[in-house]
């Protein structure tokens, strides 16, 4: 072929431009067709949900989910069939008509892979609307049979008030099978678990909202600040509307009465929660100080000594004062008297206290001590008040956070009366980041936790532990938890896989391959089993959780500070007080001892000085007496030597006496002697 012939066979630029334009138009037409199919699917879904809602409201047969063929249709499918609307097939109705193109696929064997389809059966659209699968392909991956779906729906039926968790998922949401917890069973405790980002916090918020709405007060620790949104109404959105409509949730925004608390004196983020050292007790304090078993028992002796001596332990400085006194000279005798406490152990505890206070823990202990009964309040409308403990810096002091929550729970057990089984609990206590409570805990501490959880139910208090995996909770505690909401678990490591298998073994038998399902759960989905109204475990249910009605975003810091300042509790607990306690009592005692010692030392010194003076005076007096005696002797000797004996027959010898006379001679001699010895009296 010639070059000119080859050139003639190539398309001209105009033809190439035309082909490109045709390709573009074809692509636009296909995109428009896909959008039409998607819009039709959305319309069909909305119509089905509307029909389901009408059927439930009317109490008609459509809400029972019975198909014309006698099978069970899931949720919207049943209602749509009754209303004459196109049916969107669900997992419980495999092979049902498809609204957009009428294609269908045979149901695969249960537990096996989906049936293969020919190219003509491949759907054009397979999209997700707000987390709800909307497709032209029949949903054939339903893990439960129709009978099992009916059993699940019957298992979660409730005659009394209940907390609505969500709806059953069986390939798709089954709106006719709601999953709920009977309100009377929430004091049987529970567990909310799951990997990070799977929806645990939203589940906690959902439970708190419904408890408050039913007049049950709630206490929860707000680790990341996300729960503060309970004080503000949620924000509607198209995505939220699509999700709630798909699961049959009648969603409307609402705020809930909320009180904000904070550990210590951070009044900007909450009303201060303080505890006295005596109220905290040696067991909990030993945990936050990291003491071993010997040191823990020794600290218990110190508390016992302080109680016997009437020494109030209000803050850490009081406890330091007691330990300082017992290790001082004045307290050594009393240290021996309490038995079993060595000076070395007391010194170790004292050093740990100083280090603990240096970390900023001093502000957590003191007065006024919070009365935990403030957590059991309702507002004027009868809604339970949600008490949130704001602890954004929990990573810095994890042991203190978890131990403080345990202290609050123990205080509730101490102050509340026995009520037995009640229609609704007096309080539900959410223990977030529960793994921090049990990590490195001593046997005595674990025993105290287990006993508190076991017995506090009779006080009308329910406890929900929130953590990542069930293995974070000891078996003795886990056995007390009647409700389980398990979000997705991850198995990236052999340890994760082992933990996953261990978690699966804690569930009752079900129609699910839980080891697989727990890894496939989407965000906002969970595996649920709870206690029914008759006290029996409900069937395991793959659940798509309802959306919270309050805001899922934290409220601004300014709004929180305003709410704290406006609280009726602020005036009572905001300002710390410093009553007379062990520090002042022992300080006065030690000062008195010091004063007495100094007085004794002064008296002893004065006595010694007086004795020395007396000794020196006695020596001087003795010397003077000796000198006088000697002078007298010398005087007498001179007298003897100057006077001659007289004989009776002879005449007086001539001499000084003869010249001056005897009296004059004596006066002269006496004057000479006195001049020599200085004994003459001055005139």
Automatic annotation (TrEMBL):
<dbReference type="InterPro" id="IPR003593">
    <property type="entry name" value="AAA+_ATPase"/>
</dbReference>
<feature type="region of interest" description="Disordered">
    <location>
        <begin position="1"/>
        <end position="22"/>
    </location>
</feature>
<feature type="domain" description="AAA+ ATPase">
    <location>
        <begin position="186"/>
        <end position="495"/>
    </location>
</feature>
<dbReference type="InterPro" id="IPR051162">
    <property type="entry name" value="T4SS_component"/>
</dbReference>
<feature type="compositionally biased region" description="Low complexity">
    <location>
        <begin position="93"/>
        <end position="105"/>
    </location>
</feature>
<feature type="region of interest" description="Disordered">
    <location>
        <begin position="631"/>
        <end position="657"/>
    </location>
</feature>
<dbReference type="InterPro" id="IPR033186">
    <property type="entry name" value="HerA_C"/>
</dbReference>
<protein>
    <submittedName>
        <fullName>DNA helicase HerA-like ATPase</fullName>
    </submittedName>
</protein>
<feature type="region of interest" description="Disordered">
    <location>
        <begin position="49"/>
        <end position="75"/>
    </location>
</feature>
<dbReference type="InterPro" id="IPR027417">
    <property type="entry name" value="P-loop_NTPase"/>
</dbReference>
<dbReference type="Pfam" id="PF05872">
    <property type="entry name" value="HerA_C"/>
</dbReference>
<feature type="region of interest" description="Disordered">
    <location>
        <begin position="93"/>
        <end position="124"/>
    </location>
</feature>
<feature type="compositionally biased region" description="Low complexity">
    <location>
        <begin position="640"/>
        <end position="654"/>
    </location>
</feature>
């Amino acid at each position: 072929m010639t070059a000119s012939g080859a050139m003639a066979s190539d398309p001209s630029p105009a033809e190439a431009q035309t082909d490109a334009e045709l390709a573009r138009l074809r692509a636009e037409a296909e995109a428009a067709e896909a959008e039409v199919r998607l819009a039709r699917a959305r319309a069909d879904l909305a119509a089905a949900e509307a029909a389901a809602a009408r059927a439930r409201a009317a109490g008609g047969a459509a809400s029972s989910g019975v198909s014309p063929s006698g099978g069970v249709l899931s949720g919207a499918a049943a209602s749509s069939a009754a209303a004459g609307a196109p049916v969107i097939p669900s997992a419980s109705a495999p092979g049902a008509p498809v609204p957009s193109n009428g294609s269908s696929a045979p149901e695969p064997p249960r537990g096996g892979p989906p049936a293969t389809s020919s190219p003509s059966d491949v759907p054009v659209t397979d999209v997700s609307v707000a987390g709800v699968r909307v497709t032209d392909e029949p949903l054939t991956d339903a893990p439960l049979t129709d009978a099992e779906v009916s059993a699940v729906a019957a298992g979660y039926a409730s005659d009394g008030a209940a907390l609505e968790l969500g709806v059953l998922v069986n390939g798709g949401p089954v709106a006719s099978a709601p999953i709920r917890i009977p309100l009377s069973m929430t004091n049987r405790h529970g567990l909310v678990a799951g990997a990070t980002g799977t929806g645990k916090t939203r589940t906690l918020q959902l439970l708190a909202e419904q408890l408050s709405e039913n007049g049950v007060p709630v206490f929860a620790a707000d680790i990341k600040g996300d729960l503060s949104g309970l004080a503000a109404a949620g924000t509607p959105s198209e995505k939220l509307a699509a999700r709630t409509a798909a699961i049959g949730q009648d969603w409307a925004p609402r705020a809930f009465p909320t009180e904000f608390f904070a550990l210590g004196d951070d009044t900007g983020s909450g009303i201060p929660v303080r505890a006295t050292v005596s109220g905290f007790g040696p067991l909990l304090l030993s945990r936050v100080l990291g003491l071993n078993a010997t040191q823990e028992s020794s600290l218990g002796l110190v508390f016992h000594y302080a109680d016997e001596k009437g020494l109030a332990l209000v803050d850490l400085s009081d406890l330091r004062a007691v330990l300082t006194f017992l290790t001082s000279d004045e307290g050594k005798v009393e240290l021996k008297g309490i038995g079993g406490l060595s000076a070395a152990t007391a010194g170790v505890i004292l050093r740990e206290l100083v280090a603990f206070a240096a970390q900023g823990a001093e502000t957590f202990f003191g007065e006024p001590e919070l009365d935990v009964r403030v957590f059991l309040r309702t507002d004027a409308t009868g809604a339970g008040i949600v008490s949130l403990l704001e602890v954004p810096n929990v990573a810095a002091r994890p042991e203190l956070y978890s131990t403080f929550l345990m202290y609050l729970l123990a205080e509730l057990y101490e102050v509340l009366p026995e009520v037995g089984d009640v229609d609704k609990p007096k309080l539900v206590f959410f223990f977030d980041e529960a793994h921090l409570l049990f990590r490195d805990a001593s046997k005595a501490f674990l025993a105290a936790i287990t006993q508190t959880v076991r017995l506090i139910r009779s006080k009308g208090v329910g406890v929900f532990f929130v953590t990542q995996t069930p293995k974070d909770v000891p078996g003795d505690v886990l056995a007390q938890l009647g409700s389980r909401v398990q979000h997705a678990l991850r198995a990236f490591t052999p340890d994760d896989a082992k933990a996953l298998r261990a978690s699966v073994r804690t569930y009752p038998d079900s129609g699910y391959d839980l080891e697989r399902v727990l890894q496939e759960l989407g965000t906002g989905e969970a595996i649920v089993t709870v206690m029914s109204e008759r006290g029996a475990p409900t069937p395991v249910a793959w659940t798509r959780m309802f959306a919270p009605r309050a805001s899922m975003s934290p409220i601004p810091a300014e709004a929180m500070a305003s709410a704290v300042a406006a609280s009726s509790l602020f005036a009572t607990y905001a300002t710390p007080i410093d009553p007379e306690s062990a520090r002042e009592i022992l300080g006065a005692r030690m000062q008195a001892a010091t004063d007495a010692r100094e007085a004794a030392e002064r008296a002893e010194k004065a006595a010694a000085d007086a004795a020395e003076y007396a000794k020196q005076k006695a020596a001087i007096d003795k010397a003077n007496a000796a000198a006088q005696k000697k002078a007298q002797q010398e005087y007498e000797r001179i007298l003897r030597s100057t006077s001659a004996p007289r004989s009776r027959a002879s005449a007086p010898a001539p001499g000084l006496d003869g010249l001056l006379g005897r009296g004059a001679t004596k006066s002269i001699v006496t004057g000479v002697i006195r001049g020599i010895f200085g004994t003459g009296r001055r005139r």
